[in-house]
Amino acid sequence: MPIARPAASVALEGFELRVLHLPLVSPFTTSFGTETAREVIVVRALTSDGEGWGEIVTQADPLYSSEYTQGAWDVALRFLAPALLDSAGTGLAPEDVARVLEPFKGHRMAKAGLELAALDAALRAEGRPLGEYLGAVRDRVPSGVSVGIQRDPAALAEAVGGYLDEGYVRIKIKIKPGRDVADTAAVRDAFGSIPLQVDANSAYTLADAATLAELDRFDLLLIEQPLQEDDLVDHAQLARRLRTPVCLDESIVSDKAAADALALGSASVINIKAGRIGGYLEAVRIHDRCRDAGVPVWCGGMLETGIGRAANAALAALPGFTLPGDVSASSRFYARDIVTEPAVLEDGHVRVPTGPGLGVEIDPVALDDFTVARETVTR
Ligand code: OSB
Ligand code: MG
Q: Of ligand 1's atoms, which has the minimum distance to the CA of residue 271?
C-alpha cells in the first residue's frame, strides 16, 4: 500500500551534517575489503518545530557502490541541502524531498539521509511513529545476521555458532572467489539445515557459473549479488543456470531498477536498502511492486547506527518483508551506539520502535565523542 496518510510539512531552517567514526566490535570483511570502523554521516534537520535525524550510509571508499563519504558530504552540503532549504518556503512535505532532489543525478545515499531527517522531523512534530507511517503490520521483526569472511572455514563456523547462540534466526555469510564452496560447506556441516544465504557483493562473472552452481547442493535461501551492479542481463542468464534463487542488492538502485530486474528475470528475491535507493519512500514503492508480483523482499543493512537501524526495523515490519533481514542488534557491530536505547535481540527479533518518528533518542555525548567533522547549512 502506498503511504496512507502523508506527513505534515516542516518549516526547514537548516541541516547539520556530521561525519562519525564508530569502532566496530570486530573487523568486517567482504569481497570488497575489510572495515574496522564505520565511517558514516549523521544528518540533523533543523526546523521551527524541532529536529529530525537521518543517516547517510556511504562508506569511506567507493567499493560497495560508487558513492563514498567525502563525495556524499560534498554533494549534500553543496547541492542537496541548499536545494531543499531553497524550496522549503513556508514548509516542505517529506514526500516532496525526492522531487526537489531529482534534478541531481545519482547520489541516492546522500538523498536518502536528508529525506529521513526531514521525515523524522515531520513525524516527531506530529507525534507519529515511522512504522505506522510506512505501513508496518508487526511490532517486531525477525533478525538475521551478516557474517564477514573469516580467516578460514573453521573460524567462520565458530563465528556463526556464536551468532546462533545469541538467537539470530538467519545467517548470511559473505563469499568471494576461492572462499565460497568450502566456507558454505563448513557452516552446513556444523549447523545442519539452518536458514542460510550467501552474499558475493558482485565478486563473480558469468564465467564462474559452474562454481556458483556447486552452491545449489546447500539449499541456500538465496545468493545475493553474484555479478556486477549493471549486469542485469548476465544475472538473468545466471539465474537460469542456478537452482539457488538469485537476489539483487547493489543492482537495485531504484524502483525502476527493481521493475527492470523483475521483467528480465535477473532476480527472484530483492534486498531493499532504503539508504541505497534514495530513501524509505522509494523503499515502500519497491515493497509494493514486489508484493503485487509475489516476489519476496527483505531489509538489507549498511552497518547502520541506531538511527538507520530504527528506521530499518520499521520498514522490515511491512507485510511484504517475508524473509528475515539484516536487521541485527546494535551489539553485532557496536560496543557503543549513538542512541540511548540501542536495538537488542529478544528471542531472535528486534522490536519496531513505537515513539514518534524514528522512536529513538540521540545520546548527545556519544554523538559528540564519535564526531570527526561537522558543518551546518542554513537558509
Ligand atoms: O552487501 O549487504 C551488503 C554491509 C555493508 C555494505 C554492504 C553490505 C553489508 C552487509 C551488512 O552485509 C549488513 C548489516 O548491516 O547487517
Ligand atoms: Mg549485499
A: 2
Residue nearest to atom 14 of ligand 1 (CA): 301
At 130, the amino acid letter reads L
pTM: 0.97
CB-CB contact of 235 with 266 (8 Å): yes
By C-alpha distance, which of 76, 73, 15, 77 is closest to 46?
15
Q: Distance from first CA to last CA of the chain, Å, rounded?
A: 35
Taking the CA of residue 35 as reference, the ligand 1 atom at the shortest distance is: 5
Write out residues with Cβ below 6 Å of ligand 1.
64, 146, 199, 201, 249, 300-303, 326, 328
More confident residue, 246 or 2: 246
pLDDT digits (tens, 9 = 90+) for 335-361: 999 999 999 999 999 999 999 999 999
Q: What is the pLDDT of residues 267-320, one digit of tens each?
A: 999 999 999 999 999 999 999 999 999 999 999 999 999 999 999 999 999 999
Ligand nearest 303 Cα, by number? 1
Cell numbers at 122, concatenated: 515531520
- What confidence category does residue 1 fall into, taking pLDDT thresholds of 50, 70 and 90? low
User: Any idea which residues carry the catalytic annotation?
Assistant: 174, 273
Nearest alpha carbon, ligand 1 atom 5: 302
CA dihedral 347, 350, 353, 359 (to 10 degrees): 130
How far does the centroid of ligand 1 lie from the alpha carbon of residue 90, in Å? Answer: 38
Q: Give the sheet arrangement for strand 12-30, strand by strand.
A: 50-56, 33-47, 12-30, 371-378
Question: Looking at the DSSP assignment, which residues form a beta bridge with residue 228?
Answer: none
Running DSSP on this structure, what letter comes out for residue 119?
H
DSSP per position, 162-196: HHHHHT-SEEEEE-BTTBSHHHHHHHHHHH-S--E
Q: Whose CA is nearest to atom 12 of ligand 1?
A: 146
Please give the grid coordinates belonging to residue 185.
Answer: 560447506
φ, ψ of residue 243 to 5 degrees: the values are: -85, -35
